[in-house]
Amino acid sequence: xxxxxxxxxxxxxxxxxxxxxxxxxxxxxxxxxxxxxxxxxxxxxxxxxxxxxxxxxxxxxxxxxxxxxxxxxxxxxxxxxxxxxxxxxxxxxxxxxxxxxxxxxxxxxxxxxxxxxxxxxxxxxxxxxxxxxxxxxxxxxxxxxxxxxxxxxxxxxxxxxxxxxxxxxxxxxxxxxxxxxxxxxxxxxxxxxxxxxxxxxxxxxxxxxxxxxxxxxxxxxxxxxxxxxxxxxxxxxxxxxxxxxxxxxxxxxxxxxxxxxxxxxxxxxxxxxx
Length: 274
Known about the structure:
Helix content is about 55%, strand content about 0%.
C-alpha cells in the first residue's frame, strides 16, 4: 500500500477537484522532489483519463539523473520507487542507469546537438533557441519565453537551448529543470566552471557535476567545487586530495568553506610534511 502524506492528499485524493489533480499532474503545484514523484505516481493511476495521461507525460519528462538521485536518497515509498523503475526501464534496482544512459545529470558527449531534443520536434521553433549570439531584443525574448514555459517545455529547452537559455535554466528552482541543463550536449567546461564557482548554485547541480569524471579532469573545476561552500562536504573532502599544495595551504586557512573541509586540508598538509 502506497504511503501518502497528509500534505499530498489535497492534490491526489479522489475527492480532490479534477482541476486541482490536473495541476498536480502537470507539476504546477509547489512540492519537494519526493512529494512530486509520489503525487505523479498516484495520479498516473487516476480514474480520469486526462489526469492519468498528464501525470505519465510529466513522469516521462523527468531526467533519469533526477530519478536516480531520488532513488539513491532512499526516502521514497517502496511502491513509488518500484513504479518509477518500471516507467523508466533504464533504471536499475540500485537507482543507476543501465549501461549506455547517463544517470548523473551529465551530458551524453556522444550525442549530436539535435539528439537531446528528440521527442520535442513538434515544439515551437523558438523553443530550441539554437542561436548562440543574440541581439538585445532576442535576449529579452528569451527571458519572456522561459518565464512562460511549462516544466516539460523547460526541460526540453534546458537540454537543447543556447547559452543564454542554459544560464537561465541552470538556476531554475525546479531540480528537474536545472539538472537537465547538464544534459545539454553544447554545454562547455567554462560554463561548468562558472556553475561550480557559483555560491548560489543548487547543491544537487554541484553534486551532479562532481559525479562526472570528464568534468573532474579539469583542475579548475575540482578546485572550484572544493571552494564552493554549497558543495556537499563529503564531496569537497574527497576532492581535497587532488589539490596542489599551494591551494591546500590557502584552503586550510579559509573561513569561507565548512570547517570540516578546511580541517581535511590541514591534515593533508601535515601528511605531506611527514
